[in-house]
Amino acid sequence: MFPLKTQTLPHVSYRPKPFVSSSSAATNKLSFHHNVSLTVSLSVGSPPQTVTMVLDTGSELSWLHCKKTTNFNSVFNPLTSSSYSKIPCGSPVCRTRTRDLNIPASCDPGKLCHVAVSYADLTSIEGTLSTETISIASTKRPGFIFGCMDTGFSSNSDEDSKTTGLMGMNRGSLSFVTQMGFHKFSYCISGFDSSGVLLLGDTSISWLKPLKYTPLIHRTDPLPYFDRVAYTVQLEGIRVGRKLLNLPKSAFVPDHTGAGQTMVDSGTQFTFLLGPVYTALKNEFIQQTRGVLRVLNDPNFVFQGAMDLCYLVESTRPSMPVLPTVSLMFSGAEMSVSGQRLLYRVPGMVRGRDSVHCFTFGNSDLLGIEAFVIGHHHQQNVWMEFDLVRSRVGFAEVRCDQASQKLGLKP
Question: What is the pLDDT of residues 163-173, one digit of tens each?
């Protein structure tokens, strides 16, 4: 989930001491489920409590709901854990500037480190910065820093009520992968059911196709609209069918403020493009599907506030027509979006005998964000590898439901 677009704070050098599992060759395998978000279960506390967290490569600080309310079905109870500890606002951790922790530190009335996080979808959450023991498969990490949250507002309360919190997976000093000491992780999202697999650590999988890699983009200079701890790659062009969109390369390059970076974000469902690029893609897709799809001409309907290209499809139609593939072209790699991943059926939206399906690319400008965001819907049936040592992201097409079975994980 991309952060609320405020001034990006400089990345800091503070790094919690990584804890590596007793077997350095071990890979921690976790299954997860997905719908609007990717959710994974793990154990927190002593004795361990099972929590369900949203897997989010676009966020840094992990957090859990710690206060029982009628809105949340799953919470973490710190009162029953002997390993739980609150962080005072005078702690060096609280005084470390990151994207999620502002300077000066915010103290609550009990002089504890208060933390508040906001996201671009208007979700906000706040509570106390704390430490706890995290357990995943063969790895246990005491002293893990997270937010124990007790108040907040959600723009999608139905979905948020199904999870206990969020697992921040970006490259920041407080992220899950940094604190746990994992230098590589991979995930695979099934497009055939709601299953997925997350691998933490090095992987050597003989049956996987060779991955195509694109380098991560690093910026050392502080820019107001550039997230320096995101998984930023370079989008170089977009092809619809065989036609390359007629756009200059400068349309995909961040400007002098850092606006216009391309982030790979598992916490965002769909893909969002800056206005001029989105408009070019939208017009070309309409042109190539003319006579095949019926456009919903309703200016008052914009799905999720940013997706204004929608279609009417007969509810009794057995299958979608053949659609042109949209290829996202990165430096050294491509991600192809085809078939059902191009259109999303809007739940509960019916016009006569027709259901409404929307194009799964949206306009970043309508959301008020200054970035390209590659969401998890377009990562379905793609093996996604995040290599922090070699500073790159790898792609390979694969049937993710079959990959989970081969790895011994059940949906």
Answer: 889 999 999 99
Our CA angle for 277, 278, 279, nearest 5°, is: 90
For residue 212, the cross-strand partners are 395
pLDDT in tens, 289-325: 999 999 998 988 999 889 999 999 998 887 888 999 9
Based on the fold, state whether residues 58 and 141 are members of the same structural domain: yes
* pLDDT at 1 > cutoff 90: no
Q: Is residue 103 part of a domain?
A: yes
Query: 220: buried, middle or exposed (CB in 10 Å: 19+, 13-18, 0-12)?
Result: exposed
User: How many CA atoms within 13 Å lie on the side-chain side of 230?
Assistant: 26
Shared domain for 216 and 178, answered yes or no, is no
| Secondary structure (3-state) at 158 | helix
Contact 16, 145 (CB under 8 A): yes
73's CB contacts (< 8 A; 6+ apart) are: 161, 162
Query: Is residue 325 exposed (0-12), middle (13-18) or buried (19+ Cβ within 10 Å)?
Result: middle
CATH number for 154: 2.40.70.10
Residues 306 and 171 in one domain: no
Active site amino acids = 56, 265
Query: What is the extent of the structural domain holding 34?
Result: 28-182
CA dihedral sign, ordered 276, 123, 136, 162: negative
Residues 257 and 402 in one domain: yes
